[in-house]
Every structure is written in C-alpha cells, then in structure tokens.
Write a structure and sequence with these properties.
Largest sheet: 5 strands, antiparallel
CATH architecture of the largest domain: Up-down Bundle
Radius of gyration: 21 Å
Number of strands: 11
Helix content: 40-55%
Shape: globular
Number of domains: 3
Number of helices: 11
CATH class of the largest domain: Mainly Alpha
Strand content: 15-25%
Length: 382
C-alpha cells in the first residue's frame, strides 16, 4: 500500500488540524454537549465554509473527494474529540442519499454540503442486535401515501437533525436482505413526545453525543419519501455501514493518538521518588505497547479505506479486519491511559477521561469488535 499523501491531502489535513486547534476548545465543547442545544452550530457552519462537509460526497452530488480525504478528516475530528455528527450525516446519510438518487435526495445533499441540513440514519431496532438486515419496522402503501409502523433505537445524531432515513420492510420476511426500503422522514429536531404518528425520545449518550429512540405508529409519509427502488436498499445500506465503520476507525485512531500524546506528556511531568515516572522502565514498556496498538490500527484503517470502493466481499473483509483491530486497540489504549494518569484519568477536568468514554463507545458503533471478528471468519469461509 502507498501511504504517501498528495500535496492537496496534506493541505487538507494540516488546515483542519490548525482550525480545530484554534477554534475547537474541549471545555466549550463539553459545555455545549451538556446544554439543551447539545452541539455547536457555529462550528458546523464553519465546517461548511472549510468545504469538509462535501469531501465524502461524490462530485456529481455537489461534493468532491474520496475515501482517503474522508479518513484524514475523521482522524482529525477524533483527535479534537469533535461531537458534531459528521460521520452520521456526511458519510452515512450522504452516501445513502447519493446512491438513492432522485430530486429529493439531490436537493438534500446540496443542503448537507452547504451546512443547512443535518440528516441521520435510524437502522437499529430493539430486537435486531447488530444485524441491520433484521428489520421488523414495516411500510405499506395506502393510495398515494406510505404508512410506517415500528420502532428504532439509538439513532445517533437524530436530536440534532431535521431529517432521518428510516429502514423499513416493504416485502419479505423479517431477516431477509431483500425487501428492505429506505424512507426519508422529516422531523422537528426540537420536538419530543408523540406527534403525528411519531414518538421521539432524545437523550445524551455516555460519550456526550446525542441519540434518539423513535416509535412509528401508523405514520403517514408522501410517496416521495421513498428513497430508491422499493425493497432494494440492502446493498446500499450494507455499503453505508462499512463506510461508517471505516470512518469511526479513523476517528478512533485520531482519539488514540491524542490519548497517547497526553499520556506521554503526563508521565514526563508526574514525579515519584524524585524523578519523572516516564523514567520507569515498566511504564515505558506500557507506552510502547500503546504506540504499537495505535500504529497497527492506523495501518488496518488505511487498508479498509483503500478497499471501500472494491467489490462487496473485499470491502467487507477489510472493514471487519480494521474494526476488530481498532476495537481491541481502543480498549487497551484507553484503559492504559486512564491507569497511567491514576485517579486524574477519570475526572471531568482532564481530557483523557472524555477520550476514554468516546473510545469505549466507538468499539460498538457500526458493529462491535466481537461482531466483526465473527463476520470476518464467516467471510473468509466463502
């Protein structure tokens, strides 16, 4: 693999790094996460001005860039511990809208790029576990409308969004890959409770993100709410999940790089028996082990990124290798960082505690470590 970045890619990476270092204050970000708003809209508008909201979206849909650029952006977002829903909106929802096509999707993609729209995905259900093709939510045609019935849980970023893409079964049995369709539901991001057939429950997650549980009770949608061909959404949905998994792997690498750097700095400053604890050989070995895990994760993530546009089987294998590798590393690096910081590691005042929470959550997004180990074993048996 060629790990060399082009001049444009290096400029993108360094420019975003400088912007986040100057504008994205961790204390202000945590305060925003705990507020009623839950995020920083001015930062999102600045992302639009920088052009990064279009980087993961194909040029024909108003964006410009590719998987490597997406990796560079999400790694920098992870390094700064950005809570705004970039992966949920730009990578996952943006990819689904692009592949669905149509006027509605094209118009919404343009709004994502200019920062005026937040779109998320609701794909997990109370009984589906980690299997996105296990869909009990149904959509039936009634004249000129679709009637949506069912529920979704832990829809990341939805409290901040104005639209959510919902998976629903229009034909087939519960766990069939065929028969799944995508519907675009317009919601009031400030609303909670039951209204017009939609019950929304918003909440803050352990890593200071926002998520929603949704219940659809005979929710009527216009015919135009259907994205793409009825019953044919699984290939696009599977691709979106792999793209999201690769993106969170890159984000995790950024988080781990920051955690490692902070841990090394802390050990150089913390003194015991009259000397910095960084001089203790056993702690040096731990930090070396952390470094190795980070670099292995970076290499596995790059392999996944390089294969995102390959055939479905090759892409799935590479992504599962990366997600399993990163999941193991995130657990190890996060735990070691907290332990080396001592009791300070879990305080609100120290950044490492916030990064540890995010690294813990990242292990389960778009499939847990165990899920991807099992998936890779199944894929290699074919």
């Amino acid at each position: 693999m060629d790990f060399t970045l082009s001049a444009e890619q290096e400029l993108l990476q360094s420019g975003l790094n400088k912007f986040l270092a100057a504008r994205y204050d961790l204390e202000k970000s945590r305060a925003a996460a705990k507020s009623a708003c839950g995020w920083q809209p001015d930062i999102w508008r600045a992302f639009a001005d920088l052009g990064i909201l279009g980087v993961a979206i194909p040029e024909e849909s108003g964006g410009g860039g590719g998987p490597v650029e997406m990796m560079l952006i999400t790694e920098e977002l992870g390094y700064a511990l950005v809570i705004e829903p970039y992966i949920d909106t730009v990578v996952v929802a943006g990819g689904l809208l692009h592949r669905a096509g149509g006027t509605l999707a094209t118009d919404l993609l343009a709004k994502i790029v200019d920062g005026s729209a937040i779109v998320t995905l609701a794909a997990t259900e109370p009984t589906s576990g980690e299997h996105w093709h296990d869909v009990s939510t149904t959509a039936r045609r009634d004249g000129e409308t679709w009637v949506l019935t069912g529920s979704k849980i832990v829809s990341a970023g939805t409290p901040l969004s104005g639209h959510v893409i919902v998976t629903a079964r229009t034909s087939g049995e519960r766990r069939d890959e065929d028969g799944i369709s995508l519907f675009l539901v317009e919601i009031d991001s400030a609303a909670t409770g039951v209204h017009s057939g939609l019950d929304l429950h918003h909440y803050r997650t352990i890593d200071d993100r926002r998520a929603s549980d949704l219940v659809f009770d005979e929710l009527r949608l216009p015919a135009s709410a259907l994205l793409g061909v009825p019953g044919d959404a699984w290939p696009s949905l599977s691709q979106a999940r792999d793209q999201g998994a690769a993106a969170v792997c890159a984000e995790a690498v950024g988080c781990m790089r920051k955690v490692l750097a902070d841990t090394v700095d802390y050990c150089k400053q913390r003194r015991q028996f009259g000397v910095p604890i960084a001089t203790f050989q056993v702690l040096q070995h731990r930090m070396v082990d952390m470094f190795i895990e980070v670099e292995q994760s970076s290499a596995a993530t790059y392999l996944a990124i390089q294969n995102l546009e390959a055939d479905a089987l090759t892409r799935a294998r590479a992504v599962s290798v990366a997600k399993a590798t990163v999941g193991r590393a995130a657990r190890f690096v996060g735990q070691q960082a907290v332990q080396l910081h001592g009791g300070m590691g879990m305080t609100e005042e120290l950044a490492v505690g916030h990064y540890f929470k995010r690294l813990t959550a990242l292990q389960f997004e778009f499939g847990s470590t165990d899920h991807h180990v099992t998936r890779y074993a199944e894929l290699t048996a074919r």
